[in-house]
Design a protein that fits this description.
single chain, alpha/beta, 17% strand, globular
Length: 266
């Protein structure tokens, strides 16, 4: 498997410094938080996109994906949601990124069946654009659809190869789902896996990998036993927890922890 980290852990850090961290600590790729607060977002000009892509190419680091914030099951008109997804797809294409992340974001007061159908319709509509651009849309296990069983209710009806799943191990754990069950649900659709660690269900402040309660050993073991060879991406939520330790000082030990889990699982 290849290893990446998310720029959610280094808020606002210029791309050259992000790439220097990836290179110094042996990561193969970076997941870019696509937000106006960050160096990379859909508002970039064509020249700025080309410059960013050139930096990654020169460094030999891959852009794993763009972490966007479109909420495909949120109430409202389809047009703004689809426009947001298409903007992300074009940015990903220009950067050479194979994936864009979207959230579910359903209204808890709305019937589940309606939210699922809404999300499936929007993802199905965006799938052809994704195919034309060579980018895959990944629905993250998050918020209203935090387990694999939740996500598959949307992905199954979509049934398009350019629409898949992003497994966030914290949310499936918070949803009470076992790693083997998550993998069984998402395997045909799985794009990549976000790993992280936290203190407890009540305190989700990010921790160094292996120092919290999340079942990282079990997740890696399931992936290895099933022959999955995709990406593991460390999503350290420093942006939401400013008091958390800086990610830069943790990246080396985090990589070693993941390599150890992979070695043990093999």
């Amino acid at each position: 498997m290849k290893l990446a980290f998310s720029t959610l852990g280094v808020p606002g850090l210029p791309l050259p410094e992000v790439l220097a961290l990836a290179t110094a600590h042996g990561y193969h790729g970076v997941e870019l938080r696509a937000h106006p607060e960050e160096p990379v977002h859909p508002g970039l000009s064509a020249a700025e996109r080309a410059a960013a892509a050139a930096l990654f190419k020169e460094a030999g680091i891959e852009v794993l994906g763009l972490a966007g914030y479109a909420r495909v099951a949120a109430p409202g008109d389809d047009a703004p949601v689809l426009a947001e997804i298409r903007d992300l797809l074009h940015l990903a294409h220009d950067l050479g990124a194979p994936h864009v992340r979207v959230f579910p974001g359903a209204d808890p007061e709305r019937p589940v069946e309606e939210s699922d159908a809404l999300a499936a319709r929007r993802l199905g509509s965006a799938a052809e654009d994704a195919a034309a651009l060579g980018v895959r849309i990944l629905l993250e296990t998050h918020d209203s659809h935090r387990t694999g069983a939740d996500a598959i209710r949307v992905l199954g009806p979509v049934g398009h190869r350019q629409v898949g799943a992003l497994w966030d191990v914290m949310h499936t754990w918070l949803g009470g789902e076992q790693p083997a069950d998550t993998y069984a649900a998402l395997a045909p659709h799985l794009g990549y896996v976000q790993v992280k660690d936290i203190t407890s269900a009540q305190d989700t402040t990010p921790l160094p990998l292996g120092s919290g309660v999340l079942p990282l050993t079990e997740c890696v073991d399931v992936l290895c036993r099933r022959g999955w060879d995709g990406w593991l991406c460390w999503e350290y939520e420093k942006r939401w927890y400013p008091a958390a330790d800086p990610l830069a000082g943790l990246l080396g030990a985090g990589r070693e922890h993941l390599l150890r889990l992979l070695d043990e699982a093999a």
